[in-house]
Amino acid sequence: MAKNTSSNVFRTLDVDQFNEDNYKEENDTDPAALGPNDSLITSLLAANKPVEALTHLLSGATLGIKDQAARTASLTLAMRVLMAIKVSQIDDAVAQLDNESRDVLMKFIYRGFEVPNEGSSAHLLVWHEKVFTVAGVGSIVRVLTDKKRV
Amino acid sequence: MTTIHKFGATPISCHAWSGNRSELALSHNSKDVTLYNAKGQGWEKTAVLDQHDLRVTGIDWAPTTNRIVTCSSDRNAYVWVKGPDGQWKYTLVLLRINRAATCVRWSPEENKFAVGSGAKIISVCYYEKDNDWWVAKHIKKPLKSTITSIDWHPNNILLAAGSSDFKVRVYSGFIKEIEPKPSATPWGARMPMGNLMTEFSNSPNGGGWVHAVSFSPDGSKLAWAGHDSSISVADAANDMLVMKLKTNLLPMCSLTWIRPNTIAAAGHNCVPYTFIVESDAVKLGSAMEEDKKKESSGKTSAMDLFKNKDKLGQNELETKLNFTHQKQIAEIRIVGGQKGDVDTFSTCSLDGKIVVWNLKTLAGQMKGLKI
């Protein structure tokens, strides 16, 4: 056997980029990375108004930001808000949101599942159940199909 | 009321009715198309059309001229004509594509048909009398990915194509050799062959393959179903306004207009739904079937109940869905009436059944049915 079959570095090469038939993603310009007003949300959290903080967070969230640091920052903020809302308040909080915000909330919930902290997943599961009862499987399908991630 | 027609247990991927609705052509996700004739309560197999080498992806039956066109993953399309002896004669159509054909539709006047393909090309084919063969003209720009569905405008010229690049496009399929120049429509005035009239994106968030497109009966609106569980309607008469409804359901795979302002759509939910189109929004109507919850037999003893809870985690083993169809619906086709004034329509599904839905009797039976 030839010597070079022992190396499988070739598996890391992406041959699809050399195919002319490739589907080229439309490179939309970065959306104005003006995320939700962070200071407003933190002040609302401090003032013990987490439900309002949630409404601000979701209506202000921009999807499709390419900068990873900005995305992680927005996720951390979202997790803080979600954890701050007690289980008993979740129902009202979800009922107040409109459909767009519920979709964004479901996207944050799934992103939150990706980076579990202590006890966060259990709380997120309750959130997931409450949003699912209102928004149905459609919102979960949109988490999977929307190209612009939160 | 629904009439259920069973054709075995293999999935039915596509089907088409003959003009007088007494014959049915369907394909079981294979390279054959089977033709059935209605006989009493059941169906009698009359012919098997098996010229294709690979899976048949689309069938369409022209009601007036009685021609069948089939397209397949083998990059070919065949036009089948019934001879005087009752046998179906085929003609190969060279589509000149190098990827699979995905969907096919006869135009309203049945003098041409359009085939969508994975080669990012739509082939519009017409019959050339001099050479006695079908010529294909290509629409290429600016398609970026596979065409998943096609629908013709009632004026026989315009063509809507939904694609997996998350866009819906309206093209002109005008063939100057066989038809006169069309008059202006709300979609545009200049219609040279292959001209892109308009393009719609499925979602501002970027995603969702378009599974089905359908022009409204008067041609002024265009509806499509996206994989992001949404139904959208674009209104050309209203300045290309796009009304989108993000549903709570699983995505729809096929849709058609049953009234001038009502759409019937079906897909992964295994039951058709109606959607009402208002002047500025699309609203969910209702499901065409109620959840038939079976009463528990009552004979299960307490011991069985706990036994099941221990073994299965639930009270009873429920393997059947509470709907007529047990698997997702692949296609909706109009049976009685025409687009915009439908009496009955059929759905074919991956559970091997074709179910014919009668809107009049359903409206009488189901109190909540919104049409």
Largest interface: A-B, 18 and 21 residues
**Average pLDDT, all residues of chain B:** 90
Give me the strand/helix succession of chain A: HHHHHH
How many helices of chain A? The count is 6
Account of the protein in words:
The complex is a heterodimer of chains A (150) and B (371). Chain A is an all-alpha fold. Helix content of chain A is 59%, strand content 0%. In chain A, α1 (38-46) packs antiparallel against α2 (50-60), α2 packs antiparallel against α3 and α5 packs across α6. The longest helix of chain A is centred in the C-terminal third of the chain and has 26 residues, at 120-145. Chain A is elongated, with a radius of gyration of 20 Å. The model of chain A has no long low-confidence stretch (mean pLDDT 85). Chain B has helices at 302-312, 359-365; strands at 2-6, 14-17, 23-27, 33-39, 42-49, 56-61, 67-72, 77-82, 88-93, 101-106, 112-117, 122-128, 133-139, 147-152, 158-163, 167-172, 196-201, 210-215, 221-226, 230-235, 241-246, 252-259, 262-267, 273-277, 282-287, 329-338, 341-349, 353-358. In chain B, the strands form seven sheets. Chain B has a four-stranded antiparallel beta sheet. In chain B, strands 2-3-4-5 form a four-stranded antiparallel beta sheet, with no helix packed on it. In chain B, strands 6-7-8-9 form a four-stranded antiparallel beta sheet, with no helix packed on it. Chain B starts with a strand and ends in a 6-residue tail after the last helix. Classes of the chains: A mainly alpha (150), B mainly beta (371). The interface between A and B is medium-sized, with 18 and 21 residues.
